[in-house]
Design a protein that fits this description.
The protein is mostly helical and 142 residues long. The protein has one domain. The chain is built from 4 helices and no strands. The protein is elongated and about 70 Å long.
């Protein structure tokens, strides 16, 4: 009974992590596209701190997109090595099983670290982008 509950909740965790990775990757790409559309706008003029904040935002959003892509690839490799480990367990191949176990444990940990790095860089990028839009278009707001 407890094993069934664990397996069910592990499945929920896998599905939610995959959804969250894709969501944050989509948000970072959309934010990056919006930021580049602002660069093309002639009315969007930044000076001083807001210009530096916008540049930090662009760098952070680019980094978030790259980290998100690496996280997705790491996630896929994690699934692949997990499947190979299960297959080698069933065939009683101890040496291959231990290699795949080591690989998927490393990749699982890497995926979670990349996920949190993606969230952090996206938050920094969104903060900088929203602040820059506010300062760049403040004359239109009031």
């Amino acid at each position: 009974m407890a094993s069934e509950r664990y397996i069910r909740w592990q499945g929920y965790t896998i599905a939610q992590l995959t959804f969250a990775l894709n969501l944050f990757l989509g948000l970072s790409l959309a934010s990056l596209a919006f930021a580049f559309s602002l660069v093309r706008d002639k009315d969007f003029l930044l000076v001083g701190c807001s210009k530096i904040l916008f540049q930090i935002s662009l760098i952070s959003l680019c980094l978030s997109t790259l980290v998100g892509c690496f996280a997705v690839v790491s996630r896929l490799l994690d699934f692949r090595f997990t499947a190979k480990k299960i297959r080698s367990d069933e065939s009683s191949d101890v040496e291959s099983s231990s290699i795949h176990k080591y690989s998927y444990k490393i990749l699982g940990s890497l995926t979670w670290r990349l996920f949190w790095l993606q969230v952090l860089t996206l938050a920094i990028g969104l903060f900088g982008l929203i602040s820059s839009v506010f300062f760049g278009y403040s004359s239109h707001f009031w």
